Amino acid sequence: MYEGVVQNLIDELGRLPGVGPKSAQRIAFHLLAADPADVERLTKALREVKDKVRFCRTCGNVAEEDECRICRDPRRDPAVICVVEESKDVVAIEKTREFRGRYHVLGGAISPIEGVGPEDLRIRELMQRLADGTVTELILATDPNLEGEATATYLARLVKPMHLKVTRLASGLPVGGDLEYADEVTLGRAFEGRRLLDV
Amino acid sequence: MHVAHLSLQDFRSYATAEIALAPGVTVFVGPNGQGKTNLVEAIGYVAAHASHRVATDAPLIRQGAPRAIVRAGVVREDRRALIELEINPGKSNRARLNRSPVPRPREILGMLRTVLFAPEDLALVKGDPGERRRFLDELLTARAPRFAGVRADYDRVLKQRNALLKSAAAHRRAPGPEVLATLDVWDSHLARTGAELLAARLGLVADLGPLVAKAYSALAPSSGAASLGYRSSLGERLPAGPERAGRDELAPLMEEALREARKQELERGVSLVGPHRDELVLQLGEMPARGYASHGESWSFALALRLAAFELLRADGDDPVLILDDVFAELDTGRRRRLAELVAPAEQVLITAAVPEDVPAELSGASFTVEDGEVKRER
């Protein structure tokens, strides 16, 4: 244990995801030794993120204004919505530069064990967006685990009466990998999701 | 296949142990509580990634040690492989194959296959249905390691679904449309993975039945005929010739059964339909073995189940390693001799016994004494 304030800092840092007690101690001593201006910049960034960042009122993504950058962008196709669990999934998909539609961030996945039901996710907001008929395709990009699959199935059933095109991201083999290294579940999924080779 | 070498580090009572083994019969002799069973338990762990004695891994670690390491040199069709498992209680285990790390320990399941007979096997006949379900599921996994994943998925779906039912039951009012719609989703996932497990179990029971009957009549020739049945929570819905039904045929039937049971499930807050409620029925003549079989008959039935498992795995390819942990002491002379005759042809048989007289003469081979955590070769 260290003197009061130093230990406080270590404790606080230790609460961050992915930071164990050893790393927390390392970061704390790095900050102690760092230039005051550097620490000032960090505290400012931390304060600003809490003061300024809000959640987009349309899609639920992190935003600095009422609406996020993507929802404000008129070049993005309003007819296609990609549903993801977290804002960080938006970033992941944006990096591909493949998707030109808009997003909807649910804020998690259905998991009764953790007490998360559909009413705790931004599903009502999604239904409002679908109500006016602009959207023609819904891409379900929740995580490929049990909870993500359950959430995707739930949504697919919910929007079925609306006659949208509903798609689920493919799961299967990693690009550039070797077939022999794939585990049986992935390989099995890839078999189920195989597609016609059009030549 | 056979185990050519076993090396332990901080496993149970052993700080370290190095034992060279050979094909054929090997007997470990020593008074109780000296560490014989720990040796074969370690080999069983390498094969099944679980102990036959305890449900959690913590007791496997020597007191005061952070982790245990088990290494087994396995020879299979003249090819040698070194399997290494690091057992970390409370965390996931780490596995290495021929000194290279394996991303998931599950991937080396099936590298070593064992069939283990132990005094605990009596629970297969006399114990809860859960014991018999586990017997089937472990055998499924030994035949096709993929089922480790199916079982894990099913358990997870079941947990989620039970959590939902429990919270709905706790509210004591009619569940809202959102709860019901979520339940529909879990139903379809439960039916999908449940049907896969059910289809595999039905096929397994059909394969196993004749082998159990044969093994039982060899062990206890004067007793009635042994047979297997499978009682599914789908009941009458199971199609005729259920062992030929596939997942896609069974899943809609399971969904139907779930719909019918829903009211009851919501009242009680537990899942009432699915392979977790099923029962492997052991029959002796016209009677169920559980509750009707004598102690001797129960033992014969338990041994017959293991012997049938051995025959089945053997028919798939390589001979599994047979392990008889303290089994002979439980049997009368006639059963001892007949069991010895049945297991003698296996490529490798590992036996533990408190006194050498317990082991029938048919099973002679290498012998080790185990005393005070020391393993010494006698002959």
From TrEMBL, chain A:
<keyword id="KW-0863">Zinc-finger</keyword>
<dbReference type="InterPro" id="IPR034137">
    <property type="entry name" value="TOPRIM_RecR"/>
</dbReference>
<dbReference type="Pfam" id="PF21175">
    <property type="entry name" value="RecR_C"/>
</dbReference>
<feature type="zinc finger region" description="C4-type">
    <location>
        <begin position="56"/>
        <end position="71"/>
    </location>
</feature>
<feature type="domain" description="Toprim">
    <location>
        <begin position="79"/>
        <end position="174"/>
    </location>
</feature>
<dbReference type="InterPro" id="IPR015967">
    <property type="entry name" value="Rcmb_RecR_Znf"/>
</dbReference>
<keyword id="KW-0479">Metal-binding</keyword>
<dbReference type="GO" id="GO:0006281">
    <property type="term" value="P:DNA repair"/>
</dbReference>
<dbReference type="Pfam" id="PF13662">
    <property type="entry name" value="Toprim_4"/>
</dbReference>
<dbReference type="GO" id="GO:0006310">
    <property type="term" value="P:DNA recombination"/>
</dbReference>
<keyword id="KW-0234">DNA repair</keyword>
<dbReference type="Pfam" id="PF02132">
    <property type="entry name" value="RecR_ZnF"/>
</dbReference>
<dbReference type="InterPro" id="IPR006171">
    <property type="entry name" value="TOPRIM_dom"/>
</dbReference>
<dbReference type="InterPro" id="IPR000093">
    <property type="entry name" value="DNA_Rcmb_RecR"/>
</dbReference>
<keyword id="KW-0862">Zinc</keyword>
<comment type="function">
    <text>May play a role in DNA repair. It seems to be involved in an RecBC-independent recombinational process of DNA repair. It may act with RecF and RecO.</text>
</comment>
<dbReference type="Pfam" id="PF21176">
    <property type="entry name" value="RecR_HhH"/>
</dbReference>
<keyword id="KW-0227">DNA damage</keyword>
<comment type="similarity">
    <text>Belongs to the RecR family.</text>
</comment>
<dbReference type="GO" id="GO:0003677">
    <property type="term" value="F:DNA binding"/>
</dbReference>
<protein>
    <recommendedName>
        <fullName>Recombination protein RecR</fullName>
    </recommendedName>
</protein>
<keyword id="KW-0233">DNA recombination</keyword>
Automatic annotation (TrEMBL), chain B:
<keyword id="KW-0742">SOS response</keyword>
<comment type="function">
    <text>The RecF protein is involved in DNA metabolism; it is required for DNA replication and normal SOS inducibility. RecF binds preferentially to single-stranded, linear DNA. It also seems to bind ATP.</text>
</comment>
<dbReference type="InterPro" id="IPR003395">
    <property type="entry name" value="RecF/RecN/SMC_N"/>
</dbReference>
<keyword id="KW-0963">Cytoplasm</keyword>
<dbReference type="InterPro" id="IPR042174">
    <property type="entry name" value="RecF_2"/>
</dbReference>
<keyword id="KW-0235">DNA replication</keyword>
<dbReference type="GO" id="GO:0009432">
    <property type="term" value="P:SOS response"/>
</dbReference>
<keyword id="KW-0238">DNA-binding</keyword>
<dbReference type="GO" id="GO:0006302">
    <property type="term" value="P:double-strand break repair"/>
</dbReference>
<keyword id="KW-0547">Nucleotide-binding</keyword>
<feature type="domain" description="RecF/RecN/SMC N-terminal">
    <location>
        <begin position="3"/>
        <end position="354"/>
    </location>
</feature>
<dbReference type="GO" id="GO:0005524">
    <property type="term" value="F:ATP binding"/>
</dbReference>
<keyword id="KW-0227">DNA damage</keyword>
<keyword id="KW-0234">DNA repair</keyword>
<keyword id="KW-0067">ATP-binding</keyword>
<dbReference type="InterPro" id="IPR018078">
    <property type="entry name" value="DNA-binding_RecF_CS"/>
</dbReference>
<comment type="similarity">
    <text>Belongs to the RecF family.</text>
</comment>
<feature type="binding site">
    <location>
        <begin position="30"/>
        <end position="37"/>
    </location>
    <ligand>
        <name>ATP</name>
    </ligand>
</feature>
<dbReference type="GO" id="GO:0006260">
    <property type="term" value="P:DNA replication"/>
</dbReference>
<dbReference type="GO" id="GO:0005737">
    <property type="term" value="C:cytoplasm"/>
</dbReference>
<dbReference type="InterPro" id="IPR001238">
    <property type="entry name" value="DNA-binding_RecF"/>
</dbReference>
<dbReference type="InterPro" id="IPR027417">
    <property type="entry name" value="P-loop_NTPase"/>
</dbReference>
